[in-house]
Structures are given as structure tokens and as C-alpha cells.
Amino acid sequence: MNKSAETKKYMPLVGAAGIGSMLGSGIIIGLSATITVWQSGLGLTDGQVGILSGALTFAIAAGSLLAGNITKLFGLIRSFNLMNLMYLIGAAICVLSGNFPVLLAGLIITGFASGADLPISLTVISHDAPNEKVSASLIASTQVFWQIGVLGSYAMAFIVSHVEGAAGARMVFALLAVLAGIAFVWRTFSKKFKEFHAAGDEYRAAEGTKTSTEVSFASLFKGTDGKKYVSFFSCIIIFYVCWNLLANTFGQFQTYILVKANASQSLATGCGIVLNIVGLICGILFASAAGSKHRNKFFYVGIVIQAGAMIGIALGGGTIAMIVGMIACYNIGNQFAGESIYKVWTQESFPVEARASMQGFINGFSRFCCGLFALVTPYLVAGDRIHTTMYGFAGIVLISAIAGTRMIMLQKKHGVGQM
């Protein structure tokens, strides 16, 4: 069976895992887009609004950090099935909440499940895939679902923006709960997925890999290939943290930046929808190349576009047209040298029994850094400081470029991920 046919065969699994990615971006953007609705509907203070946003960020980080422990406790496949049930419970609590403590509890449960699901889902895909080429294409495809979740949340929030009270926000979270329920049923009861999981066990057994036990960082880094794995880990975490600081800034504060540049709220929201459509198209384009020899070319093009976008905003005089144009450019580069290639690198470069822990730790640590950085982001992107800040962001892109280039060199040196 050729690569294209094998990839197509496993697309239902990507769909089930991809819904998890949609739910992950959906809860982040969903809360961001409806937080003022929750505030007016439940009578929340500004301080409580800040607590809700921060609690969600850190709950996602905690879920990511503990993903490996969850797979140790329940097993990889059972964890894959159960995380969406936990998400459903949390989202349902949010829908039914009538006060701040209940909404906070729902967000913490939902965020934790979302944070844990992403590394677990990617590990299941790489476990079930028959080879590296197919695995790379499948994993990169999950990023498309993340973009769909972002776009869908923006669109849903826009549609219900005129609904009085907290009812509009409840509708958004009810939709997320329904999607989580669909994913739970699909993952748990699909006979095809059970066949994929069983075949994956056979593939990994043939490679001499134990899939039932998640190994610790210490045993991985101190083992025979410890130096190689430490090098991989260092490059990936530096690249991803630097990339995520910028991605989180434009994800959470894109509307804020545009409004501060004197755009209307409706224009800022509309731009968010259009810009995410651009990102979705580019994400699909990269997914088609992730399992090919051309993906490194995409990486270098993406890095250059990202750096150019930061410098463009800095030099553009703060006009709305320039900021929108450069954010559009950033959304293009972001798909070629960002989350997708990070996921592929992590799943390719470590043993399958360490991938959930490794991806979970990097995701969680990065989220923690983003949560801290978000505390000062509004100050940094204010109209009178955004130019200087963008030069600093260009420097961050340069650091991620160096780490990513080193990662590509290491993969070539060790014969990993070579198409």
C-alpha cells in the first residue's frame, strides 16, 4: 500500500483525535470570545475574570504535564477514550453554572482534560501508524482541526454576541460539550479504531518497543541514547516555547491589538475570522508536505515570513492596514514553522513509550510560560510600545529559528524523520 493510501486509511483516527484539538482551541478561544458575556451575565468582577482566564491556562498546563502519569495509570488507549468524557463533564458544568465558583470549577476540569488529551492523542496516532512517513502526515493534519476549532469558536461567539445575558456563552460551551460527547463515543466504540490499536501493538512489538508502560525522563536521558534524546529535547523545547509566546500573544490579544490601533470591535472580530481562514488553508498545505522531503523547506520559509511580519508591524507606523497585513503574513509562516512541525518532531524523535510524557511536559511548560507572559502582554502591545515590542518578537523568532535548524541537523545526523 502506498503512502497516500495508507494515510487515507487512517484519516478516521485523525478525525477522532482532531476533534480533541478542536476542543482544545475551542475552550481557549471560546472563553476569550465570551468572557465579557460571562462577566455581564453572572455579574463577575474584573478580578474574577482574570482568575477564570488564568485558571484555564494553568489547568491546561497541568493536564499536559500529567499526561504521561495518566497513561501510566489508565493505559494509553483508555486514557485516549476517557479524556473527552472528562471534558464533557467540565463543559456541562460551565453551561449549567450560575455563579463564579461553579464556572471556575467547570473551566478547571475542561482545561485539564484538554491539556492532557493533546499529547495522548498524538501518541495514539504515532503508535497506530505503520511508519514514520504516515505518522508525520497524520500528526500534521491534527493542526488543521486546531485551526477549525479557533475559527469555529470565533464564528459561534460572533453569532451569539447579541444574545442577552450569559445565554450566548452557554450556547458556545454547549456546542463544545456536544463535540466532546461525539468524540468520546467515537473513540470508545469504533471497531475500526480497535483494529488500528491492535495493529499498532504489532508494529511496535516488531520494533521491539513496549507500548504498555510509559518510561520516565530519567531513564530516557540516562540510557544508551541519552545524549541524543537530551539534544532533541533541548532544541524542541526552546523552539516551541519561543514560538508559543508569539502564537499565544496573537491568539489571545489579536483583537486587543487591533482595537488599540483604533479598529472597531466588529472590524477586529471580523479580521480574526478572516485571518484564521488564511491560517487554516496554510495548515492544510503544510499537512500535505509534512511526510515528505519538502517539509524542511516549508520550515525555513515560515521562519522568514514570521520574522518579516514582526519587523513589518514595527516599521508600519501602527496603521490598521499594516497590522492586519502583517498578522496575515504571520498566520502563514506560523503554519509552516510552528505547532505542526513541533508535534511531528516530538513524535518522531522519542520512543513511543515516552512520547505522551515528553509532549505533555513540553506543552505544559510552554503553557506555564505563556500564562506568565500574558500578565505583561497588554502593556507590551499598547500603541505607544508595540513597535519596540515587535523588534523583540523578531529576536524571539530568531532564537526559535536557531533551535529549529539545530533540530533538523540532529535528525539528519541520527537518521530520524528522513523522508
Automatic annotation (TrEMBL):
Keywords: Membrane, Transmembrane, Transmembrane helix, Transport. One of its GO terms (cellular component) is plasma membrane. The chain crosses the membrane at residues 12-38, 50-68, 80-98, 137-161, 167-186, 229-247, 267-286, 298-328, 390-409. It holds the Pfam family MFS_1. One of its GO terms (molecular function) is carboxylic acid transmembrane transporter activity. SUPFAM superfamilies: MFS general substrate transporter. Residues 10-412 form the Major facilitator superfamily (MFS) profile domain. InterPro entries: MFS, MFS_dom, MFS_trans_sf. It is a multi-pass membrane protein. Its main location: membrane. This is MFS transporter.
